[in-house]
Amino acid sequence: MASWKRSEPEHAVAVAIYYAAIASALVFHDVKVTTHSYESLEASFTRLINKPWMSAELNSLFIRALKLCRKKGHKSKS
């Protein structure tokens, strides 16, 4: 859905929902449901955090997921 041709706001919402699902799986189930690397996820969550239109709840979820990605990404390099 995120790759479909849409207006910019629709695309932003689709991307936020996509990454919210990934973040939820990481935070609440300790499962990575994507082939994206932890480093890639970290970059994506960083871009989404503190967007002016982002809800406080989603922002908090992305922050928690970002911290997990940093932790897990460093473990996989060891």
Oligomeric category: single chain
Task: Sketch the major β-sheet.
Answer: none
**Whole-Å distance between the termini?**
35 Å
Regions with little confidence, pLDDT below 50 for 5+ residues: none
Structural class: mainly alpha
Summed up, the helix count is 3
Helix content percent band: over 70%
Question: What are the main properties of this structure?
Answer:
78 residues, mainly alpha, globular, single chain, 3 helices
In short:
The protein has 78 residues and is mainly α. Helices cover 71% and strands 0% of the residues.
Could you characterize the architecture of this molecule?
There is one protein chain. By secondary structure, this protein is an all-alpha fold. It has helices at residues 8-29, 38-48, 56-77. The longest helix is centred in the first third of the chain and has 22 residues, at 8-29. The model has no long low-confidence stretch (mean pLDDT 90).
Itemize the secondary structure elements and their pairings:
Layout: H1 8-29, H2 38-48, H3 56-77
